[in-house]
Amino acid sequence: SAPGRFADYFVICGLDTETGLEPDELSGENFEQTPLRRTFKSKVLARYPENVEWNPFDQDAVGMLCMPKGLAFKTQADSREPQFHSFIITREDGSRTFGFSLTFFEEVTSKQICSAMQTLYHMHNAEYDILHSPPTNDKESCSSAGDCNGTSVSKLQRFNSYDISRDTLYVSKCICLITPMSFMKACKKVLEQLHQAVTSPQPPPLPLESYIYNILYEVPLPPAGRSLKFSGVYGPIICQRPSTNELPLFDFPVKEVFELLGVENVVQLFTCALLEFQILLYSQ
């Protein structure tokens, strides 16, 4: 039986430099997009521990749900703010495990990956010029006018480009906690503080492995009806578990639901739930 630990796994997903750049077919690859706008396959790079008997690790599910849009590449000109999301894995027996992911961008240090991205841009621009080059008999008129639609569009396409000698390439990476209960706020703080420790010029008080070991092996689940306070990298983290006679644990901000869907849609969804309608939410 499960020993009642706060978290079962710490997972890292991202770019496997040995595999290289593989198109992510599940994301509906569009090769007309510039290479920086395409998505590539992400991999589970590491997990700790390797396996726990009460919660077998599903590598395919975790990898897909940690980075549902696959790998994303950006340059120094793009916004690279970290993004947080959660997910649920439901097993065949109906039991659930919860995942919380923080996705951020780090500089690509592999010269092979940078060269591969540059090559993709050379190929993309060459194909684009062939497809959008003006007919032969119109070349003189285009040159006399100084510009034509094909050239101007091509310039727009190349605006969001990558030049290995000029640009810094960044790729998305994800750190994730797999937990038996949905303590969203606490998990978000843990991941944000770990990310802060990685990106801070000053090292944290203890090695990062110490904090990861602590969250995996030394922090228990709070008993029903009790609160738990434990130490993060930079400050305390608190979570509270409802008692058996209270409403079930719901640690998500209801405000975001209203911001995303609007009041009318929330009321309609609530009505549908009370009437036991089937509800399907579709999102990118």
Task: Write up this protein.
The protein is built from 8 helices and 8 strands; from the N terminus they run ββαβββαααβααββαα. Helix 2 runs antiparallel to helix 4. It has a domain at 9-111 and 164-221: Beta-Lactamase, CATH 3.30.450. The model is unreliable at 141-159 (pLDDT under 50). Helix content is 33%, strand content 20%.
Terminal CA distance: 37 Å
- Structural class based on helices, strands and sheet pairing: alpha+beta
Summed up, the helix count is: 8
CATH topology of the domain at 9-111 and 164-221: Beta-Lactamase
**What oligomerization state is this entry in?**
single chain
Helical coverage, percent range: 25-40%
What is the overall silhouette? globular
The low-confidence runs, each spanning 5 or more residues with pLDDT under 50, are 141-159
- How many DSSP-defined strands? 8
Q: What CATH architecture of the domain at 9-111 and 164-221 would you give?
A: 2-Layer Sandwich
Strand content: 15-25%
Radius of gyration: 24 Å
CATH class designation of the domain at 9-111 and 164-221: Alpha Beta
The mean pLDDT is 84
Secondary structure elements and their pairing?
Layout lengths: L8 E6 L28 E6 L10 H8 L6 E3 L7 E8 L5 E12 L3 H22 L6 H7 L3 H11 L9 E11 L4 H16 L8 H11 L8 E5 L4 E5 L13 H8 L1 H12 L10
Antiparallel strand pairs: 1-2, 1-6, 3-6, 4-5, 5-6, 7-8
Helix pairs in contact: 2-4, 7-8
GO molecular function, one term: small GTPase binding
GO cellular component, one term: trans-Golgi network
InterPro entries: cDENN_dom, DEN5A/B, DENN_C, Tripartite_DENN, uDENN_dom
